[in-house]
Amino acid sequence: MRHIISILIENQAGALSRVVGLFSQRGYNIESLTVAPTEDPTLSRCTILTLGDVEEAEQITKQLHKLVDVLRVNAYAHDGAAPGLERELVLVKLPIPNRNVRDDIRAVCEIYHASIIELTPEIVTVEYVDSSDKVEDFVKMISGYSDILETVRSGVLGIARGNRYMKG
Amino acid sequence: MENPTGAQMVVRTLEDLGVERIFGYPGAAIIDIYDELMNSQRISHVLARHEQGAVHMADGYARATGKVGCALVTSGPGATNTVTAIATAYGDSIPLVLITGQVSTGLIGTDAFQEVDTMGVTRPVVKHSFLCKKPEEVPKFLRQAFYIASTGRKGPVVVDIPKNCQTPRMPEGFVEQKDVSLRSYNPTVLGHKGQIKRAMTTLATARRPVLIYGGGVIQGEACAELRELVERFNLPVVTTLMGISGFPSSDRHFLGMVGMHGIYAANEALHNCDALFAVAVRFDDRVTNNVKKFCPNATVIHIDVDPASISKCVHADIPVVGDAKAVLGQCLGACDELHLAGSELTEWWGMLDGFRKAHPLSYPHPQGLIMPQDVVRAVSERLQGQDYYVTTDVGQHQMFVAQYFGFERPRTFITSGGLGTMGFGFPAAAGAKMAHPKAQVICFTGDGSFQMNMQELSTCKQYHLPVKIFILDNHVLGMVRQWQSLFYDQRYAATCLDFNPDFVRLAEAFGHQGIAVSDPAELDSAVERALAMEDELVIVDVRVNPDAKVFPMQRVGGSSEDMILSEEEA
């Protein structure tokens, strides 16, 4: 089962390494990880996507809570009762051997509401934001038109639905 | 003192926090703090002979007193030498603060002389750690370190102080903030009232209840509350290795240690109970054996200050997060409020007494050989009623002490349970002796374990720490050999210590006393002579039967009651 774990940590040296270390130390996997400061610059928000059963996610949550630098932890099960909202950004760089390919790529981007963020005579770089499964669909679709040179995914970002929120 | 330096602030803060003893080893990156320490009237320093020894001493001091142990070492190898000792304290949740020197901030990351990423190396084995970047952070981090080490589930904390945070003065107008507040660290003290009521109702209506407690009861100073609860409900009590000494072993409610080498009746009690009241235990694999077969018919009530310990290994039907002392106090209060009282549990106690009678501890007595159990019993008999502390190393002798000694007062049994560190016992004894100079401090060790930290014989001479060391000397690594003997076709791979030093002459070389015994008839007098030499460290080298084995021994993968009780059954 996919679990998106949101963590508020003190924005200081060593804090992130404790979070990451905990996962390897206790044998949990990290599918993706993103981290950046929040509106309160003393806090960072970290989102980790992990796979495992409910008990494992609960144990991860408890162990994360134990870290002195961790202020809040929330886990959203992807197919649980109260799934959160999730988004992921992908950048894909593709070669353009001819005009037809360029037009095809542009058409796919229009359908997906993806944007072309750089275009040269030989190269196109596109940007797409959606849930992880949609991102995968998009990458698969676009790879049918040109051989992908590079993909960069941001990792999953998660946030609770409605009036639930996590704040320092 | 106006505008103090970082090093002055270290010493001033430690004094303010009530530190009296500090164990350590100097070096270039910590020399400024050492220089300031010389000026302190309130803190005395103990120079160990190896950084591992220093931290084990601080650990033994902490276990014997309940205070936070404190150690001071230099950067690089000074810090890496402490890793096993930090992990030992972490494994048993012992409050410890380790101050490490570090190269100057400008040199960090350049692979400078004696530079190591101390935070990185120690990260998995500390409760928390700090790296100071500015002198003014030094007192703040030290206070936070002591607070974190000694609250909630206790544990070791490292404070890494670069050299250029020790020498400069605090900035102009620096005002020290003395109260510690950490928004992201607030351990739960009181338990949930509703859960406590549920727990107590379950306990009061159980027909076969068992109380199991662990080291957290000793660390959390909850022994008196535990005993009151036991007496009110007439509960059978079992302990983990780390809980030994937390409940008097002469009390009729006490069945003994559970687990791998637990007492028969204690393990049977676990297997047959219908309600397990677990206080400050973490259900280590050596306690549960196969978790799937653990306490098959029991409702599990689990009290622990660490929420992550609850339902980690054994599912808790009624979890209560909170400090052991506070929660047990609440439990007693809830009994009064709900008018709950225990029943006689006549049938259950009848069954338990049957287990006790069926298989009490026993061992063979081959002619002409001293059995290691004999040594433990001989020392125990002479110490009962006295003020004593006993430390052990790790292996067969540790289990014999756990099984045969019979402890009565909290903190008197000091052992490395979680990590199982050979080499812990002797320096820990030195630390305990530092804390209780008038008490008899005994270290039971093996010839394998003792050789891992015997350099501290010098420290004991220098600081006059007359501990008594009983080496249960079998010239083998007994516990591993026991496994090889029982499960590896007697293939004794690398477990034979064919050469050992002459421990008596070794003691003498360090200015101590040594006694060697191999004749069973001389054991008692040797023990008596050793204990009588109050002002001397004595090594008693007891040659014991190398074929002695620790029983009961649980069959791996079985339930609590799958026990091998003697060599014939193996």
Describe the structure.
The complex is a heterodimer of chains A (168) and B (570). With 168 residues, chain A is of the alpha+beta class. Chain A has 2 domains: 2-77, 2-Layer Sandwich (Alpha-Beta Plaits), CATH 3.30.70.260; 85-153, ACT-like. Chain A, domain 2 (Alpha-Beta Plaits, 2-Layer Sandwich). Helix content of chain A is 29%, strand content 38%. Chain A has helices at 15-25, 54-66, 99-112, 132-142; strands at residues 2-10, 32-37, 43-51, 70-77, 85-95, 115-119, 123-130, 150-153, 157-159. In chain A, β6 (115-119) and β7 form a beta hairpin. Chain A is elongated and about 55 Å long. The two termini of chain A are 28 Å apart. The relative contact order of chain A is 0.21. The model of chain A has no long low-confidence stretch (mean pLDDT 93). By secondary structure, chain B is an alpha/beta fold. Helices cover 37% and strands 16% of the residues of chain B. In chain B, the strands form 4 sheets. Chain B has a 6-stranded parallel β-sheet with strand order 2-1-3-4-6-5, with helices on both faces. In chain B, α3 (51-65) packs across α18 (425-435). The longest helix of chain B is centred in the N-terminal third of the chain and has 15 residues, at 51-65. Chain B starts with 5 loop residues before the first helix and ends in a 6-residue tail after the last strand. The model of chain B has no long low-confidence stretch (mean pLDDT 97). The chains are: A alpha+beta (168), B alpha/beta (570).
Number of helices of chain A: 4
Instruction: State the total count of DSSP E strands of chain A.
Output: 9
Low-confidence stretches of chain A: none
In what range is the share of β-strand residues of chain A? 35-45%
- In the residues of chain A, how many domains can be counted? 2
The radius of gyration computed from the alpha-carbon positions of chain A, rounded to a whole number of angstroms, is 19 Å
What string, H for helix and E for strand, traces the elements of chain A in order?
A: EHEEHEEHEEHEE
